Structure formats: C-alpha cells, structure tokens
Amino acid sequence: MSRVVSSLSPQPISREVLQEKYAKGTETTADEVRLRVAHALAAVEPEAQRAHWTERFAWAQAQGFVPAGRIASAAGTTLGATLINCFVQPVGDSIAEPENGFPGIYTALTEAAETMRRGGGVGYDFSRIRPQGAWVGSTDSHASGPVSYMRVFDRSCETVESAGSRRGAQMGVLRCDHPDIEAFIHAKDSGDLRNFNVSVGVTNEFMRAVEADGEIDLTHRAEPGRKLKTAGAFERADGLWVYRRVRARHLWDQIMRSTYDHAEPGILFIDRINEDNNLGYCEAITATNPCGEQPLPSYGCCCLGSVDLTRFVRNPFAADAAFDEAGFAEVCAVATRMLDNVLDATVWPLPAQQREAMNKRRIGLGFTGLGDALIMLGRRYDTEPAREMARRISAVMRDAAYGASVELAKERGAFPLFDADRYLGGESFASRLPDELKDRIYAYGLRNSHLLSIAPTGTISLAFADNASNGIEPPFSWTYTRRKREADGSFKEYAVEDHAWRLYRHLHGPDAPLTDAFVTALDMSAEAHEAMVAAVAPYVDTSISKTVNVPADYPYAEFQGLYFTAWKSGLKGLATYRPNSVLGAVLSVEPAAAPAPAQVPQPQPLTVAQPGMTIDQDGANRRLRVERLPQPVLASLRWPGRPELPSGNPAWSYMIQHPHGSFSLFVGELPAEAGPDAGLFGQTLPFEVWVNGAEQPRGLGALAKTLSMDMRANDPSWLRLKLDALATVAEERAFDMAFPPTGEKRLFPGVVAATAAVIRWRCEQLGALQEGGATPVLDAMFSREEPRTGVDGTLAWAVDIENPGTGEQFTLTLKEVTLPTPEGGHVTRPCAIGFAGNYPRALDGLARLLSLDMRVIDPAWIGMKLRKLLNVGEPLGHFMAPVPGLPAGQRRQKVWPSTVAYVARLVIHRYAMLGVLDEEGYPVNEMGVLATPVAAASAVAASTARATMPGKPCPECGNATMIHKDGCEFCTSCGYVGACG
C-alpha cells in the first residue's frame, strides 16, 4: 500500500457507514471487520492451513480487496443471511406446476421471497409466461399476461422488504419478440413496478430488422385465444404462434423513448451474452442480476468482490506515477481464492441455488476506483491513453484470476461441468484467452466457470475504500454533503469527498489547481463513457455495470445511436441516464448557468391602477408594471425551516365540524426556551399547523403546509395578513360551527374560513399576532394588495388541468406584473393566482396565500413555498398529466401525487419560462432578502452543488428522492447510499 494513501485518516462518513452497515459486536475499525471475514472464509480451508489463509485473506483486504457488502456484513456472524448478493430465478408459465425445469409462477414467487428474505436480490425472465389473451385450456379462459404477474412479484418484494434489513432488489426481463413487449416497455410509465428494474432482451435478429427497417414476428408457444386468431394470429412451421407482426423500428422507438425519458427499460443484447458465455454448451442465459453486471442461468448467483485500483498507484499525480501490476496481480490471486471459499461458507436460500453453484462455481472478481486511479496516473478518463491503461489493468486482472483458478483446480479439482474441449472451443470468452492460460487449463482444468465481473460498489467504497470512484465509473463529483439521521431522530451532516480529490488536496494543499486529469462523469461525452466500456469488455467474462450519462438536451437521434454503437461494439448491454423533467436533474458539479431574466421593453405608462403601479401600452396586449421597488434590509428574513425537535413538541388540537363531516386541526407549539427566538411570542411559539381526518376537504392539507412556513417567519403582521386573507374565502354554502373557548356557534362562509378563524384564535392566545416589532416579510413586498387592472385588462398566463380520477377540470390563471431589476432592466413576475371551473374549493384559500407570497420581492420565497407543495399527496388523489418543461415537440406524462402538486409544478414552470426560477424551483438570480440557513450555506459553499431528483422514498430522510446511480440507489436529498443490485 502507498505510504501516501495510508497517511490519510478515514473520513468521518466512512466510520459512520462502517459502523452502521458492516461492523458487528465490538468491532470499531475496518481492520476488525476484515479479520472477521478472513477467519470466516479461511474456515473452509484444511485445518492445518487456516491460520495461514486467515493471515493472507486479511492481508489482501488491507491491500485493497473489498468483498461485496453481503460478505462484509454477514461472514463470520450468526446471521442466517446469504453471502451472495444476487441471483437469477426461473419463472414458468403454469400457476404452480413445474414445466421442463421451470417452476410455476407462484412457486417461483415463493422461491424469490425466500431468497430476498435471506438478503439476495433476484432477476427473472418472464418471457415464458403466456401473453395477454392467450388461451388457457385448463380453465377455459384467457391469460392476463406477464406484466400482471410482475405486479404480484412487485407487491411481494415490498412485503419482504418491510420485514428485512436489506431492500429486495429485482430485475425483470422480457424478450423483444414477446407479444406483450409493448405493455412491458410502458409498465413503469405510470409509477407501477416500483420494486423492479426492467430490461428488454434484444436479439441480433431484431437489431438487424431495426437496421433494415424490417418487420419482426411477436411469438409465443402458447396458443392464442379466439379473438386473437380472428385478428390474424397463426401458427408458424416451427410450432410457435405468431400473435402479430410489427415494424421493428416502431418497437425500437418505443423502447428508446421510454429509456430517454425514464432511464428504463435497459437493454440486454441477449444473443451476444450467450455467444460469449463460457458455458454455452450446457446452459442458456435469459436474464441478469438487478444491476446487470452478471448474466446468469436459472438459479445462478453472483459471488462478488472488487479490488481498489487506487491502492496500486505509486507516486500519485507525479510525472513518474505508475501502476503496480505485480502487486495488483498478487491481490487478485488471493481474492479469487477467497471468493471461491465464499461458495462453501455461505448459507444458500434454496437447494437449487446451491446445486447450480457447486456445479459451476461462478465468481465475479472486479475492480473499483478506475476513475480515481486514472486521475492519480495523470490520464484523463475520456482519452485513448486512459482507455489503454484500463485495458492493461483489465488484462492483468483476467490473467491473475484465471491463473489462480487453474491453481485451485490443481488443488481442489475443476468445477464438475468442466469440459476442456467445449469450454475452450467455439466463440466464447474462454476461447480468446492467452495461449499460455489455455494450455494450463487444458492440462489442469479450471476451478471456476466464470471469474470476472465489474459491479457497482456503493457503500463498501465509502466504508473500505475512502470513497474511491465507483467500479468502472469516473467520479461523479468531488464532494457533497451527506445528511444522516442519528439514533435520536436528529440529523448530522458529513462532508463526503472523492478519494483522488481528497488525496490531491492532502498532498498539494487546498488551493492548488487541479490537474487536467480531474474530470467527472458530467464533464465528458456519452461516446467517451461507451468507449471505456468497449475498451474493458473484452477482458471481462460476464459483464460490466456502467451508466452512460448524457445531458438533458442530448439529441434523441444520437441517444439511439449510442445503443447501436454498443451493439456494433459487441457489448452485452447498456444503461444510460439523462436528466429530464420526469427523472430530475443529475447531481451537478457546479450550479447550472442561469438564463438571463426575461427583458421587457419600457413603453409609455397609461393610467395608474393603484399607487406605484402603471399599465404598459402595447396595442391590445397590456401588462401591469411596478415603477419602484421597496428597499428592505437584506438577509432580514429567517428561513422558515421546521425546528429539529428530537424529544417532540406539544400540539393544541380542535375538532372542525363542517357540513360534510369533521376533522382534527393541530397547532404545533414550541416552548419559548427551546427555540432560537425564545420569548419572541411569549410563553410558546406556534410553528406549524396541520389537519388530520378522512373528511377534511381536499387541498386543505396543502394550505396548512404553506401557512406553517408563515408561522416560522418571525413576522406577526405577515401571519395576521395571511389569516385575514383566509377569513372571507367563500365556498358552496355557509355553515354554523362551535367556536372556542365556549363552543358558541358562529357562522362561517366555508371550511377554509372556519379553519383560519380557529388558528387565529389559538395564535392570539399565544400572543403570536401582537402589533409592533419588525415586519421583515411585509417590508419585502412590492405590493401588499393585489395589483388591479384598468378597464382594458392585462396579460395573464393560463393552463388547463384535468384530474380524471376526481372529475376535476379547471383552469389555472396567473396574473403577471413587470418589475424593475437592480441592473436597470425589467422582469415579468406572477403576482396573483386564481382558479376557474370544477376544483377543490380549498384551493381558493391556497391561492390567496400564494398570491401574497408571489409579491415578496425575492423569488426565493415563492420558490420555497412551491417546492414544499411538490410532494403533497392525497389518498387516491394521484393522476396522470403531461409533464411541463419538455423540449419542443416532445410530450410525456407522469403520475402526480395530487392536484396541488401538479399546480405547484405548473407554477414553477411558468416562473422558469419567465427566467425567474429554474425548473427545480430555485431562483435564477439571488436577491439576498432571505437568509439562507447554515446547513444550506455550507452546501452551497462546497465545490459541488447537489440538485434533488424525484424518485423513491428514502429510508434515511423520507424524501421521495432516491434514484439509481452507478448501479446503486442514491438519495439526492441527503446523500444516503442504499442497495446495489
């Protein structure tokens, strides 16, 4: 190990992840975990050699070998968990009965549940399941198709996940010529199959048809139903039924557009996988593990480990930097033995998995930290010298692993299905091994049928490799802030630094300019990503987990071209990630360049609509304009974030009884001595309000959410203005309601007004609405009243909204005003929001609140309010609607959690159209009126800014921002790294 590397102390986040995920009992250091693993894997050696191999196995780990997470967390413990990360399991066509070695669907479901319960992820090929509409003779009915059964597997995975400590990762594959392929391609468009990655198994025949603009048959061995036969289905000479013929390019375009927008489905070049398979003579592969780096047969497993390449760079960043090939090869040889031992040391969830492993003894040795190692060697990732170095490193690993497996065969015997002539013949990977290796294999056999796999490393890199770049990937960013939940429920922030960047700063100081080799995933072309995979793939006998990152504006035609290039290059698959409005933006190394504010000409003013307000003249198009802005004290507003209260807080409650039912209203209260502004409002501080109950009007929860932020703004007059605005919100009919403290009946124009009145009463009791004192929010408004037009009206922006599930159909309208800018120009801003049509009437109250927020000078204020509403959900309130902000000519839909969430997204989009906010809801130009919280300030000050992306709920912070990055789950809100495959 390099003395330079060993002089770096561990990052605090590395210690945290080690303790949380891998350390057991009294273990506190990585070396103690390594020693436990070494003891466990040496236990399968002859007794007289165990001490020797324990020492060697611990040495190999200290030198950079990082066993997969399952091995690190469970080896040598009393846990009944498997040491194997992932499996592929067969799924037949019958409900329960086995058929030609394939278990029935529900038997397969049970096997998968047991596998996931033991900690393994599972991949499946669902292509044997008969298509929708196929004839089911035993019940005289019609089949529902593979996608319907995938939903059953999806729900089962959720159940198993909730009972275990590791998330149940799944991969679902369907062949490109299955009659239900189109339903499969679009199965996740509406948020279905959340516990699946999905990939299409693409054949060479299909790709040639795409290339030639030909047609393909969608076929299955199951007989179609009568309707399908009437529609033209027929039986081919080979016994397969042709359900229909489709133009290959039409199907390819559906796959590509879904991948372009959703990053799924992935592509598996299934023929190439089988052509290259060392065991093509005795098995067929139709699926992969969930991260795609291990194509596997039925009941096959991936026994994984990675070697940290950064440990073998000598004189890093220097002109004479070099890679220690001999040291690397020695570690690879010992690691190969360790992984072979895992197969004998592990618990197997199913006997069939154990039989498969014992017959073939597949393992997957790979490397991690390639991107960082290339930086340390002075080779820029997207150049030919870097690819040549990667080829050389991969060849050394191949030769060391296969050589070690030959030695193991001499000692322990070859794997049972080994046949030298068939193994080394044909066109498989083994046939292309160096002659010296092939001669040794002929002479002594081979212990393991497959030996190499480059997998994602996720948290094992954080815990054991100082956050070296993931697998084959370049670094994604040099540093980011990880927000981690502590045992008491509070959060603690950790700086997470890339290893190469951290080492460079350690050696050369914090201000030294980075070398040209420092390049991240977002700094290079998509072609460069694909080229690195193509460079390394010939040296890897299974596959490689690699994400090709493309920018949001990457042309669709070129995007398709990446996949054709991958096919032509002989790759076994490809995964891409393109930021867009459906998935969100990727983590940014630097904040995106801001578009210039929309500039508006300065026409002659007409009549004054109210003091300080004019109407621009432009023929029939007129717009309100403010001549002068107030000058508030900068940074005068406290950012209204919720206080962190590990021990909880008191809340006052009241039952709101309205004509259609009743619900509970809660006002959260903070003891004065516990808050940062102790004593501001008296004994306690009201800091939030929420409602609960099945009979609350739709939209009222969102209103409470935005009002809570106003409670935390330290401006009693502003809160009073908000409550005043709600006091007269009229709905379908007025009603009488008991009012505190005596229960006397009072007449209210609607539920919103009644709720606001109760909130006001409680705030008055707490002294939260007292006159006098600072009014920072009011001072920051450019207009306290809604700007009024003349008789000729003014321009406004309108958009139609429809929620089919609730029957709502209405129009959202934004009144807009032109404001001066500090630079002397003008910018157009919304100043009021309104609704017309059939919509939840509580939105009228929300509109009044947001209209006031829109008139705060700093757009960061309204941006903050709108972002908080993006994740507001409602029971059965989700619906599908078009995504705003897509490039011209494109149209996509997604599922929105509620009408309010969609309204917030549309308003953000309008602000983005005007150049005021970006599409994420953050201000294009900061005005400095809002005081940024300390945590946010530290994140902005870091060399990397992180943008959140919509995704699955994060188990760490709870935000719906968990995405798939570099083969691993990654939360873009808090930096949590979850399951990898």
Low-confidence stretches: 162-166, 581-611, 673-682, 932-947
User: Could you tell me the mean pLDDT?
Assistant: 85
Largest pleated sheet: 8 strands, mixed
Strand content: 15-25%
Name the shape in a single word.
globular
- How helix-rich are the residues, as a percent range? 25-40%
Strands, total number: 38
Distance between the termini: 30 Å
Query: Which class do the helix and strand fractions yield?
Result: alpha+beta
Radius of gyration: 31 Å
Q: Strand order across the biggest sheet?
A: 14-2-3-6-7-11-22-21
Give the number of helices. Answer: 30
GO molecular function, one term: cobalamin binding
Pfam family, one: Ribonuc_red_lgC
GO biological process, one term: deoxyribonucleotide biosynthetic process
Family: Belongs to the ribonucleoside diphosphate reductase class-2 family.
Written description of the protein model:
With 981 residues, the chain is of the alpha+beta class. The protein has 4 domains: 3-81 and 303-508, no CATH class; 86-288, Anaerobic Ribonucleotide-triphosphate Reductase Large Chain, CATH 3.20.70.20; 613-633 and 780-934, no CATH class; 638-775, no CATH class. The chain has 30 helices and 38 strands. A hairpin with a 5-residue loop joins strand 19 and strand 20.
Short précis:
The protein is of the alpha+beta class. Residues 162-166, 581-611, 673-682 and 932-947 have low confidence and may be disordered.
